[in-house]
Amino acid sequence: MAQKLTPDARRAALESLPKWHDAEARDAIERRFVFKDFNQAFAFMTRVALVAEQMDHHPEWFNVYKTVDVLLSTHDADGLTERDVTLARKMDAFAAAFGI
């Protein structure tokens, strides 16, 4: 089972993920991705879905047209873990490929 990040590890992780921030109501991080159009947003989600399935770690997300809102938390740890940080980094890399 994944372990929740310590407060110091969490701070360090968020410093390395400047576009992510703490979620208000949960032990989680979140980010909004805004793409050029729906096709880009859907392509991003598809790329993330393939990686998430390989990691057996699935994001909570919401998509409307060109916007994808993401919340990452590890359910079985009831909070933020290194798995979330790893997936956030992968999401940032995919978004960067679209110029986001």
Structure commentary:
The chain has a four-stranded antiparallel sheet with strand order 1-2-4-3, with helices on one face. The model has no long low-confidence stretch (mean pLDDT 96). It has 100 residues and is α+β, with helices and mostly antiparallel strands. The chain has three helices and four strands. It has a single domain (7-97), classed as 2-Layer Sandwich (Gyrase A, domain 2), CATH 3.30.1360.
Keywords:
100 residues; alpha+beta; 4-stranded antiparallel β-sheet; Gyrase A, domain 2
List the helices and strands and how they pair.
Layout: H1 7-16, E1 21-22, E2 29-34, H2 38-55, E3 60-64, E4 67-72, H3 82-97
Antiparallel strand pairs: 1-2, 2-4, 3-4
Strand order of the largest sheet: 1-2-4-3
Total helix count? 3
Portion of residues in beta strands equals 15-25%
Helicity range: 40-55%
Named at the architecture level, the CATH assignment is 2-Layer Sandwich
Fourth-level CATH superfamily = Transcriptional coactivator/pterin dehydratase
Mean model confidence by pLDDT: 96
* H/E element sequence: HEEHEEH
Low-confidence stretches: none
Number of strands: 4
CATH class: Alpha Beta
Shape: globular
Structural class: alpha+beta
Number of domains: 1
CATH topology title: Gyrase A, domain 2
Main sheet properties: 4 strands, antiparallel
Distance between the termini: 33 Å
Question: What is the gyration radius calculated from CA atoms?
Answer: 13 Å
Family: Belongs to the pterin-4-alpha-carbinolamine dehydratase family.
Protein name: Putative pterin-4-alpha-carbinolamine dehydratase
GO molecular function: 4-alpha-hydroxytetrahydrobiopterin dehydratase activity
Organism: Oleomonas cavernae
